[in-house]
Amino acid sequence: MIKINLIPYHEKEKKEDLARQIAVMAGAFLLFILCLVGVYAYMTVSIGGLETRLTESREKLKALDAKVGDLDKFKSQIAEFELKLGVIKTLEENRVYPVKLFDDLAMQVPPKSVWLTKIGQSQESLTIEGIGRDNIAVAGFMKTIENFPAMQSVDLVSSKKVEIAQTTLQQFIFSCKLKKGF
Predict the structure, then answer these.
(1) pTM above the 0.85 mark?
(2) CA angle 143, 124, 93 (to 5 degrees)
(3) In the CATH hierarchy, which top-level class contains the domain 112-178?
(4) Which end of the chain is more exposed for a tag (fewer CB within 10 A), N or C?
């Protein structure tokens, strides 16, 4: 006798294949979810480490900014001190300048023929007032002053005869222009 199996065997295999495919898909999905969880955990740990490093870097930056601020403060103080030292040096150099100038000028006065009565200085000019024995002595003194290294130019402002102790003398006023930087 011939037996006919009316149960479709293909359906049973299809159901088994479908169950196997569902199991494989579920396994793959579960594996995918596990991979995502692993990546998420790794990223979370990495971000935490980076945030910690960022916080430490910001603290270091604040400390360095404070040091740079102190350095800028010190640089400005140094510049201020150098400026003050330059002023002090200039004052020290110029302190003895008038004394030296007047001493050198006094050495130029011819003895027994010219007497200075007044010397005045304003900025870069000098006014010399005095009395000379005669016009020749006054002119010679003027030539001597013109050759003086500190003088740029010498001009005769006035010259007139005066009588002092029954002696006729020549009173003069010179206007001198000083050289710059001398």
Answers:
(1) no
(2) 105
(3) alpha beta
(4) N
